[in-house]
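Lab notes, practical 5.
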Amino acid sequence: METLDGQQCPICGKNTLTLSEGDQEVPYFGKLVVFGMNCSSCGFKKSDIEAFEPKDPVKFSLEIDSEKDMNIRIVKSSEATVNIPRIIKMEPGPASNGYVTNVEGLLLKAKDVIETMRDSEEDKAVKKKCKNMLKKLQKVMWGQETIKITLEDPSGNSAIISEKAEKSKLSVKKNK
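Output from the prediction step:
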């Protein structure tokens, strides 16, 4: 991993930003370039991944039905949308990051988002809905319930690496 310190942070403007870049080989996916930015002053962080070879837009679906599935590897670029129906949809945007994780790590990220929403919400009905979503996620992580995860990436830089995962071509809408 190569790093470059003392760069200007796009958020706070101080020269305390560290840029990093490195290669990582992911079995059954190929070589990735991992990018990162981290500011020691304001805490700004941004990361992304990009496949070494250009890829076509892609969609992956995975039915999680056992505790063993928690170990399935996921590569997610900052341009990917993660959808866990009736639980959460994590869409790309300025704060979106790319990462390599597993199903458990992805579900823990979803859990963190739902907990934050629950804790900041005043509406009791929304709090209850969040509580029920958290219960369902926990049951899925224990292998007691099934759930489907969908990963859509117009850049093609994402994957669910498992024979159980269904891969299909993602049709990308073009702006006129």
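Observations recorded by the TA: Helices lie at 103-120, 124-141. The mean pLDDT is 90.
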